[in-house]
Design a protein that fits this description.
This protein has 199 residues and is mainly α. The chain folds into three domains: 41 residues, no CATH class; 103 residues, no CATH class; 39 residues. It is built from eleven helices and no strands. The protein is elongated. Keywords: DNA-binding. InterPro entries: Integrase_recombinase_N.
Length: 199
């Protein structure tokens, strides 16, 4: 009562006669059969049941963590929702995912997305790994790589002259000194390991 007075809330209670509030009346008398008859619901199609179950499982799968695999799974779940697809990772759904995602990111990266999705979802869908390995998914991915992938650009390996230039350009700041120390250490260590392999 104090809260109502403090915040100026006007609360009114009205009685609704039994004949106008039949569901509540039946519930208060534990007449469950009557409640079901009064409040009947239409049956869903198998397609609707499957979709709704998949959406529910999708919500169960989404832990709020920042790991890469969770990010891949969240992308998959969002794409399924966006296209009103069941979350069940069938070859059809995974191939649609591959094609759609390949239009938005480098197709070579889609492989790691698929691995992350399967890793996180196979607890709920035991056939996920088989769907991932299906010919339909493999061919869709291969086709997207051929159609959209950019050629790999490889850099030339560092030479002794490159390391000397980095040392000469060092300004003496903490970050520059740290970078050149890591560069020289890595370069010399790899050179040492390579020379050991040759002997």
């Amino acid at each position: 009562m104090d809260v109502l007075l403090e915040y100026g809330i006007d609360l009114r209670v009205a009685h609704i006669p039994d004949e106008e509030n039949v569901v509540a009346d039946a519930l208060s008398h534990f007449q469950n059969e009557r409640v079901l008859a009064l409040h009947s619901r239409d049956a869903w199609t198998l397609e609707r049941l499957t979709l709704e179950r998949s959406v529910a499982l999708g919500f169960a799968l989404e832990p709020s963590t920042a790991s890469t695999y969770d990010s891949h799974l969240n992308t998959y779940l969002n794409i399924c929702r966006l296209h009103s697809r069941a979350v069940d990772p069938t070859p059809d759904t995974l191939s649609f995912f591959v094609v759609w995602l390949s239009h938005h990111i480098e197709p070579r990266s889609v492989d790691s997305y698929l691995s992350g999705i399967v890793s996180r979802i196979e607890v709920y869908y035991p056939d996920a790994r088989a769907a991932r390995r299906s010919q339909l998914v493999a061919r869709a991915l291969r086709g997207c790589k051929r159609r959209f992938s950019q050629p790999v650009k490889r850099k030339f390996p560092l030479s002794r002259m490159d390391v000397d230039r980095a040392l000469a350009d060092c300004t003496g700041s903490y970050n520059d000194c740290l970078f050149t120390a890591m560069l020289v250490t890595g370069f010399e260590t790899l050179g040492y390991m390579y020379s050991d392999l040759g002997s």
